[in-house]
């Protein structure tokens, strides 16, 4: 939902000039690298030889798995750096570089990690005093080169990453301002470059009292051609070379009407990049919350000099004639903080997901209703409006789980209040919504209206809880309510206090069926530089926004989470949607891709954007269905509903100036198509829920790039027009208006893919033209995967909780298949604390389908039963089907459809929770 | 046969959770189709299944007719018997979902939740609501009938009035013709006299102008002729550098000669060839040097005296028989001193026509009288025509088949909201009036009735209002509902710039609801 006041000015100006508004963002409001002094300095830093050297004699073992060295800049000898190497469990390595005796402490990111990473032993070999080699974990190895400083990383003996091999490591130590009394002789003209001690952008001045403090480093992925991640950008999934553009920028901003296909910053930042090739998947995560820029270049590494000595480590032999291997070289630049890099050495995609989630946490299992369908709009105007929308879903027989209220529901954008004329009885409204197991989500933004009569403001003001200017006054800016202030969540007391605003007692009119949406939390400040905080404002602990900027939104939604968690004494799972995020946000909130537009191109870009989020930990993410700005035509809306039905967070949302677009407003046929798309989501909910459970356990996101399931299939490394849900469904969104056919490459060797509509079988490694109509987008089930579904219709997911299950068994070439099903009560933490859950494994092999438990402690009670088993690719009509469970036996009916090779087993009947075996003869 | 047996076996083994109640959820009227037999024909005729498959919690029929009593089919229909109330059909996916949808709770036969039987209360409540509704409609219909009968009267009144007006119009138009003739007769002598007056005035003015020119010329010549030799020489003129057309360089002898056309000119020659060339640029030498300020008062006095003289001469020239008229004060009341002859000339041009003589005045008076009489009659013609148009417009407005909505004609209604007053003027336009000041915004002009085909008069629309920025033109849809008074009860803007109003009016009350008897309702229960 974003929209900012510049718009109001703009509207006025455009009104006068009678100029139609531009479709695109006003780029002049946002910095280019050239306009950001540290980026300008770091980007041009390309010495032939790195002046940084490691003093290997200084090596200390702090504890097993933690080594410490001293690092020098030979051009600035008095400045010493400390290099810490931590060998971590799960094939991961952490490297920290900080000033040894800084004149001011440098910021180290808090709140992002799930805990203190666990160390593992390292086996050291000191190679001829020039290098230190350390082996750790299953198959990981680092090689630290002393002169110059360089760090090489290996997995399974393959050389995968190299740090500072391009000599771009450049650490700006804190210094005194030239010309001041304390300045030492060390200062020279290079310390007084333009933009080091102050910087002006448009009318905003950044006072930079501490001078330059940025860090740059090159991290190079050897023998890789594709890197991914570093969200959030509206750009390709396989990151593009920035040779001719700005670097990818990481700086949480509210970009009004963002453009697509460019490296501009957006609402969230995750400084985590993955690289994948057919041999390995690796990752690099730099834990830093300052403004960042990352250059990406696809180039070649010439294997000579040093590299020739380790040529044998390359996964692919350099070509004989050229001695070259491809590499993706990346250059990372952050404005402040320290170097705190995590290297994940895979080597498989699954390993990578696990490794990153061990460090920053995984998405916890959401409430079941949160992964069902959400209906939102800026704004549902009043209680009658909400009720009439709910009635519309009933009347049109479309399932719905959540309805949302945007900013207009409050009393003048004072969050935690209601416009009592429009919402005189919010508790009653929520009770009515809850009748069918549904929930209400209200918005709660971080700007606090400056109004002494507003209790939240008055209390926070009295307590001194607002973010301060560099001069110590409460910082005031403008946002939806006009003059506003912002809470300093970095202070634990304020964090706690804010979380308490969500108690049923403090948030009048809220009930246990109300959940929260945190928007505008980059934060968006209409009159601030780049529409956000000035960098020199001060947070708790004296840190400048410069140091902590990208954490602000996360701290707000973490505090919100705490509030909702405490509201039920930790019994009920909270749900929070946030626009701004940082690494670690996934532990407490779902994210969406902000203010997109009702255009085909934005439907198309949603897939790469969500894939980028998925592989960097944000498995619970979505894009506004239909596009936030302007009006989609019926075709675009239907296609969007169809695509988003297979994306993790499924919500319709629209700008206040758009026409109404509830599913039934586009004629009976489109209503039918939208109903069908939403019902498909509900049909697959048991599968989705199982995938979300696996995500909590293993860090594997439900929505996946094809390479995550087919890591050796080189044809899919750049694929971003198709994606997978788990390993079972291959989904092809239709992103053009008039499409009759799409060309689809089916991944994997010897795989079979079943068109879920026609049951037509396709072979892996083949490209096929598939006919397309408006009824659905192409979705294929992979042979070898069993998918649990619920084919009964219900008004909401929670009303279907105990409904019977249909198993869809798609056989592979060996006539085998397997799958899982997870179930619980759908909304509490009893699955964790009381083992109130069921986790089953289904295996089809040798004409037998077995159901076994994957978790013997699980004891969720449900009368859900297996209502139907569909077997795809079954070769012939069997004689008989027998099902055995314990000492009971039954012979269910079956039906075989020869043309489509589908065997239907009617009413096999066992309870989902029981063990059973179905035998086909 | 074999299959059925096996199926039953399985049911015994695994069911437990499902009670076989074959006839659950079937409406009484359909029971004959579900008679216990070996097979069941799906109601759409699509297939025949073993009768054991009816309500066995597995969907076999495409139309869902085999599972009226379970949630197995997405399109099944469940019959709530609802003893004490009305039997209702609900979608079968409401069965067993933990929500009590039937008032007798029969849809939740197998879930753990307990549904209270609320049929009795519901029946009471429904009855009370119906009665209230009926009473409202009855009261409304009474008013509506009044409106309709009034509408008939109004309509016949209107028609009678129209006829009357049309007849009246004919008469008045005849009268107007007579008046027009009289008017023309009076205007002919009036125009003649006026023309004469005008002509005389123009002649006088020409004389005045000639005199003024002459005066000015004399004055100028005298001033130029510095040596009083009755000639203006090159030298004398050369002093007047303001006459140099190319102001930049010197005013040369050649240039001066070009103006004079000779080395010197006498008064007559000056009159013919020089004066008109220089009169616009010419300035007195005394004006050019500030040392000798002009005595404005003197000039003014002189001019006034001259004018008086001229006027006197002119008066003598006019016919002696005509009465002398007094010079109007303002004509000569020169409040600002006349600085130069040129300004004086301007003063003459500003002169207005003098008053008419009494004869002319009398003629004008007569003509004015004729004109007024004509205008008065013409006003009546227009008034009648407007009344006819209004009546015709009123009878053109669609006020419903029986004129139910005729009471709206020429009426406006306000709806007060926190920030705005919404004013709807029926069959005309609708406005949003800001309470905090600011101009009114038209949100639509009358477009027509837009209710559904079977109920066209349920809704009306006002469209093409003021355009929203970057958006559509505003519009308003009014939905009518039965009420005892005409009043808007709600205005909303569900989509930006598309307003909707709910309007209560007796005109929307329904005779059928009003006359529904309790007896009939009892039958439904």
From TrEMBL, chain A:
<feature type="signal peptide">
    <location>
        <begin position="1"/>
        <end position="24"/>
    </location>
</feature>
<protein>
    <recommendedName>
        <fullName>Glucosidase II subunit alpha</fullName>
    </recommendedName>
</protein>
<dbReference type="Pfam" id="PF01055">
    <property type="entry name" value="Glyco_hydro_31_2nd"/>
</dbReference>
<dbReference type="GO" id="GO:0005975">
    <property type="term" value="P:carbohydrate metabolic process"/>
</dbReference>
<keyword id="KW-0326">Glycosidase</keyword>
<dbReference type="InterPro" id="IPR011013">
    <property type="entry name" value="Gal_mutarotase_sf_dom"/>
</dbReference>
<dbReference type="GO" id="GO:0090599">
    <property type="term" value="F:alpha-glucosidase activity"/>
</dbReference>
<dbReference type="GO" id="GO:0030246">
    <property type="term" value="F:carbohydrate binding"/>
</dbReference>
<dbReference type="GO" id="GO:0005783">
    <property type="term" value="C:endoplasmic reticulum"/>
</dbReference>
<comment type="similarity">
    <text>Belongs to the glycosyl hydrolase 31 family.</text>
</comment>
<dbReference type="InterPro" id="IPR000322">
    <property type="entry name" value="Glyco_hydro_31_TIM"/>
</dbReference>
<feature type="domain" description="Glycosyl hydrolase family 31 C-terminal">
    <location>
        <begin position="699"/>
        <end position="787"/>
    </location>
</feature>
<feature type="domain" description="Glycoside hydrolase family 31 TIM barrel">
    <location>
        <begin position="364"/>
        <end position="691"/>
    </location>
</feature>
<dbReference type="InterPro" id="IPR017853">
    <property type="entry name" value="GH"/>
</dbReference>
<dbReference type="InterPro" id="IPR025887">
    <property type="entry name" value="Glyco_hydro_31_N_dom"/>
</dbReference>
<keyword id="KW-0378">Hydrolase</keyword>
<dbReference type="InterPro" id="IPR048395">
    <property type="entry name" value="Glyco_hydro_31_C"/>
</dbReference>
<dbReference type="InterPro" id="IPR013780">
    <property type="entry name" value="Glyco_hydro_b"/>
</dbReference>
<dbReference type="Pfam" id="PF13802">
    <property type="entry name" value="Gal_mutarotas_2"/>
</dbReference>
<keyword id="KW-0256">Endoplasmic reticulum</keyword>
<comment type="pathway">
    <text>Glycan metabolism; N-glycan metabolism.</text>
</comment>
<keyword id="KW-0325">Glycoprotein</keyword>
Automatic annotation (TrEMBL), chain B:
<protein>
    <recommendedName>
        <fullName>Glucosidase 2 subunit beta</fullName>
    </recommendedName>
</protein>
<dbReference type="InterPro" id="IPR036607">
    <property type="entry name" value="PRKCSH"/>
</dbReference>
<dbReference type="InterPro" id="IPR002048">
    <property type="entry name" value="EF_hand_dom"/>
</dbReference>
<feature type="signal peptide">
    <location>
        <begin position="1"/>
        <end position="15"/>
    </location>
</feature>
<feature type="region of interest" description="Disordered">
    <location>
        <begin position="311"/>
        <end position="344"/>
    </location>
</feature>
<feature type="compositionally biased region" description="Acidic residues">
    <location>
        <begin position="313"/>
        <end position="328"/>
    </location>
</feature>
<feature type="domain" description="MRH">
    <location>
        <begin position="410"/>
        <end position="511"/>
    </location>
</feature>
<dbReference type="Pfam" id="PF12999">
    <property type="entry name" value="PRKCSH-like"/>
</dbReference>
<feature type="domain" description="EF-hand">
    <location>
        <begin position="212"/>
        <end position="247"/>
    </location>
</feature>
<dbReference type="GO" id="GO:0017177">
    <property type="term" value="C:glucosidase II complex"/>
</dbReference>
<dbReference type="InterPro" id="IPR039794">
    <property type="entry name" value="Gtb1-like"/>
</dbReference>
<keyword id="KW-0256">Endoplasmic reticulum</keyword>
<feature type="coiled-coil region">
    <location>
        <begin position="367"/>
        <end position="394"/>
    </location>
</feature>
<dbReference type="InterPro" id="IPR036055">
    <property type="entry name" value="LDL_receptor-like_sf"/>
</dbReference>
<dbReference type="InterPro" id="IPR011992">
    <property type="entry name" value="EF-hand-dom_pair"/>
</dbReference>
<dbReference type="InterPro" id="IPR009011">
    <property type="entry name" value="Man6P_isomerase_rcpt-bd_dom_sf"/>
</dbReference>
<keyword id="KW-0175">Coiled coil</keyword>
<dbReference type="InterPro" id="IPR028146">
    <property type="entry name" value="PRKCSH_N"/>
</dbReference>
<keyword id="KW-1015">Disulfide bond</keyword>
<dbReference type="InterPro" id="IPR044865">
    <property type="entry name" value="MRH_dom"/>
</dbReference>
<dbReference type="Pfam" id="PF13015">
    <property type="entry name" value="PRKCSH_1"/>
</dbReference>
<feature type="coiled-coil region">
    <location>
        <begin position="155"/>
        <end position="185"/>
    </location>
</feature>
């Amino acid at each position: 939902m974003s929209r900012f006041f510049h718009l109001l000015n703009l509207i006025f100006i455009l009104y006068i000039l009678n100029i139609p508004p531009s479709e695109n963002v006003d780029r002049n409001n946002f910095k280019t690298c050239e306009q950001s002094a540290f980026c300008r300095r770091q980007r041009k830093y390309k010495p032939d030889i790195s002046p940084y050297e490691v003093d290997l004699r200084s090596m200390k073992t702090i504890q097993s798995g933690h080594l410490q060295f001293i690092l020098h800049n030979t051009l600035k000898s008095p400045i010493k750096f400390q290099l810490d190497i931590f060998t971590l469990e799960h094939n991961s390595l952490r490297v920290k570089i900080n000033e040894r005796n800084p004149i001011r402490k440098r910021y180290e990111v808090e709140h992002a990690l799930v805990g203190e990473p666990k160390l593992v032993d390292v086996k050291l070999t000191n190679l001829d005093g020039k290098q230190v080699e350390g082996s750790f974990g299953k198959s990981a190895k680092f090689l630290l080169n002393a002169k110059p400083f360089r760090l090489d990383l290996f997995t399974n003996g393959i050389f995968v990453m190299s740090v500072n091999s391009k000599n771009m490591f450049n650490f700006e130590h804190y210094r005194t301002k030239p010309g001041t009394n304390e300045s030492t002789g060390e200062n020279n003209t290079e310390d007084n470059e333009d933009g080091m001690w102050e910087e002006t952008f448009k009318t905003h001045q950044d006072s930079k009292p501490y001078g330059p403090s940025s860090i740059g480093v090159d991290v190079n992925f050897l023998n890789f051609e594709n890197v991914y991640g570093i969200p959030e950008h509206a750009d390709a999934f396989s990151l593009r070379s920035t040779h001719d553009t700005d670097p990818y920028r990481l700086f949480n901003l509210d970009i009004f009407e963002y453009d697509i296909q460019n490296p501009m910053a957006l609402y969230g930042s995750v400084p985590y990049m993955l690289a994948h090739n057919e041999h390995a998947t690796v990752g690099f995560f730099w834990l830093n919350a300052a403004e960042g820029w990352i250059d990406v270049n696809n180039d070649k590494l010439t294997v000579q000099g040093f590299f020739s000595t380790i040529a044998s480590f390359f996964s692919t032999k350099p070509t004989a004639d050229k001695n070259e291997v491809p590499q993706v070289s990346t250059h990372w630049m952050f404005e402040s903080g320290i170097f705190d890099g995590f290297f994940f050495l895979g080597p498989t995609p699954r390993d990578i997901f696990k490794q990153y989630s061990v460090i920053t946490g995984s998405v916890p299992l959401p409430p079941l209703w949160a992964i069902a369908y959400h209906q939102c709009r800026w704004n549902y105007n009043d209680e009658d409006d909400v009720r009439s929308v709910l009635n519309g879903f009933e009347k049109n027989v479309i399932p719905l789980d959540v309805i949302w209220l945007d900013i207009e529901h409050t009393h003048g954008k004072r969050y935690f209040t209601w416009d009592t004329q429009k919402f005189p009885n919010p508790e009653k409204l929520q009770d009515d919504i809850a009748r069918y197991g549904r929930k209400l989500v209200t918005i709660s933004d971080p700007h606090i209206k400056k109004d002494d009569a507003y209790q939240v403001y008055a209390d926070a003001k009295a307590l001194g809880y607002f973010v301060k200017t560099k001069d110590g006054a409460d910082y005031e800016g403008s946002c939806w309510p006009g003059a506003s202030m912002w809470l300093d969540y970095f202070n634990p007391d304020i964090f706690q206090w804010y979380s308490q605003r969500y108690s049923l007692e403090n948030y009048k009119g809220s009930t246990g069926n109300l959940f929260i949406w945190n928007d505008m939390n980059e934060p968006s400040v209409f009159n601030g530089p780049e529409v956000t905080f000035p960098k020199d404002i001060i947070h708790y602990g004296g840190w400048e926004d410069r140091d902590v900027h990208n954490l602000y939104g996360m701290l707000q939604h973490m505090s919100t989470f705490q509030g909702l968690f405490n509201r039920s004494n930790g019994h009920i799972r909270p749900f929070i949607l946030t626009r701004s995020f940082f690494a670690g946000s996934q532990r407490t909130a779902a994210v969406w891709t902000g203010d997109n537009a009702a255009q085909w191109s934005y439907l198309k870009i949603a897939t790469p954007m969500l894939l980028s989020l998925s592989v960097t930990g944000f498995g619970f993410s979505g894009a506004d269905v239909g596009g936030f700005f302007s009006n989609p035509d019926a075709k675009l809306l239907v296609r969007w509903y169809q695509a988003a039905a297979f994306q993790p967070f499924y919500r319709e949302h629209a700008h206040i100036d758009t026409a109404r677009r509830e599913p039934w407003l586009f004629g009976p046929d489109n209503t039918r198509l939208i109903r069908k798309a939403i019902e498909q989501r509900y049909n697959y909910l048991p599968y989705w829920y199982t995938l979300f459970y696996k995500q909590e356990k293993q860090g594997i996101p439900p929505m996946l790039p094809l390479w995550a399931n087919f890591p050796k299939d080189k044809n899919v490394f750049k694929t971003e027009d198709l994606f997978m849900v788990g390993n079972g469904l291959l989904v092809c969104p239709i992103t053009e208006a008039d499409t009759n056919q799409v060309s689809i490459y089916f991944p994997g060797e010897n795989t079979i893919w079943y068109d879920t509509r026609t049951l037509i079988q396709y072979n892996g490694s083949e490209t096929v033209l598939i006919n397309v109509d408006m009824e659905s987008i192409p979705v294929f089930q992979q042979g070898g995967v069993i998918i649990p579904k619920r084919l009964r219709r219900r008004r909401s997911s929670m009303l279907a909780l105990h409904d019977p299950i249909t198993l869809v068994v798609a056989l592979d070439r060996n006539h085998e298949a397997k799958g899982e099903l997870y179930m619980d009560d759908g909304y509490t933490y009893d699955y964790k604390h009381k083992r109130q859950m069921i986790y089953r494994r289904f295996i089809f092999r040798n004409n037998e389908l077995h159901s076994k438990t994957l978790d013997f402690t699980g004891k969720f009670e449900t009368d859900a039963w297996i209502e139907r088993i569909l077997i795809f690719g079954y070769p012939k009509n069997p004689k008989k089907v027998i099902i055995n469970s314990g000492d009971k036996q039954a012979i269910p009916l079956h039906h075989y459809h020869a043309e489509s090779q589908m065997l239907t087993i009617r009413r096999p009947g066992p309870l989902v929770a029981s063990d059973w075996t179905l035998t086909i003869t | 046969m074999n299959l059925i047996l096996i199926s039953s076996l399985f049911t015994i083994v695994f069911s437990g959770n499902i009670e076989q109640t074959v006839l659950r959820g079937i409406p009484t009227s359909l029971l004959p189709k579900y008679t216990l037999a070996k097979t069941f024909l799906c109601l759409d005729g699509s297939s025949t299944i073993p009768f054991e498959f009816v309500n066995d919690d597995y969907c076999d029929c495409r139309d869902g007719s085999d599972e009226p009593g379970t949630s197995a089919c997405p399109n099944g229909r469940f019959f709530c018997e609802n003893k004490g109330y009305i039997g209702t059909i609900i979608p079968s996916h409401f069965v067993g979902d933990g929500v009590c949808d039937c008032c007798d709770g029969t849809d939740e036969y197998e879930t753990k939740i307990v549904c209270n039987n609320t049929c009795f209360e519901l029946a009471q409540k429904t009855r009370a609501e119906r009665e209230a509704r009926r009473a409202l409609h009855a009261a409304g219909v009474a008013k509506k009938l009044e409106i309709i009968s009034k509408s008939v009267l109004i309509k016949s009144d209107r028609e009678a009035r129209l006829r009357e007006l049309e007849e009246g119009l004919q008469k008045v138009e005849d009268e107007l013709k007579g008046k027009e003739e009289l008017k023309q007769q009076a205007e002919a002598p009036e125009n003649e006299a006026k023309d004469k007056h005008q002509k005389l005035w123009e002649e006088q003015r020409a004389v005045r102008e000639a005199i003024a020119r002459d005066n000015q010329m004399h004055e100028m010549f005298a001033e130029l002729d510095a040596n009083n030799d009755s000639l203006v020489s090159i030298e004398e003129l050369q002093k007047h550098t303001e006459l140099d057309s190319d102001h930049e360089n010197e005013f040369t002898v050649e240039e001066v000669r070009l103006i004079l056309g000779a080395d010197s000119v006498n008064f007559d020659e000056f009159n013919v060839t020089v004066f008109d060339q220089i009169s616009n640029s010419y300035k007195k030498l005394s004006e050019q040097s500030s040392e000798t300020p002009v005595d404005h008062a003197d000039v003014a006095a002189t001019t006034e005296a001259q004018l008086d003289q001229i006027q006197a001469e002119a008066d003598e020239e006019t016919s002696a028989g005509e009465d002398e008229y007094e010079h109007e004060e303002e004509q000569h009341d020169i409040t600002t001193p006349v600085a130069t002859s040129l300004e004086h000339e301007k003063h003459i041009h500003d002169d207005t026509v003098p008053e008419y003589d009494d004869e002319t005045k009398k003629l004008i008076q007569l003509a004015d009288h004729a004109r007024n009489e004509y205008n008065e009659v013409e006003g009546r013609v227009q008034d009648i025509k407007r009344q006819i148009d209004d009546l015709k417009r009123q009878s053109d407005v669609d006020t419903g088949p029986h004129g139910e909505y005729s009471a709206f004609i020429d009426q406006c209604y306000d709806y007060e909201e926190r920030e705005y007053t919404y004013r709807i003027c029926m069959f005309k336009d609708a406005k949003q009036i800001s309470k905090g000041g600011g101009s009114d915004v038209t949100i639509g002009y009358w477009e027509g009735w837009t209710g559904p085909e079977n109920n066209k008069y349920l809704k009306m629309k006002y469209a093409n209002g003021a355009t929203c920025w970057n958006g559509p033109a505003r519009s308003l849809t009014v939905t009518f509902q039965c009420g005892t008074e005409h009043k808007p009860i709600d205005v909303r803007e569900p989509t930006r710039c598309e307003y909707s109003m709910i309007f209560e009016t007796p005109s929307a009350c329904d005779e059928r609801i009003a006359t529904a008897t309790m007896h009939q309702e009892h039958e439904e229960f």
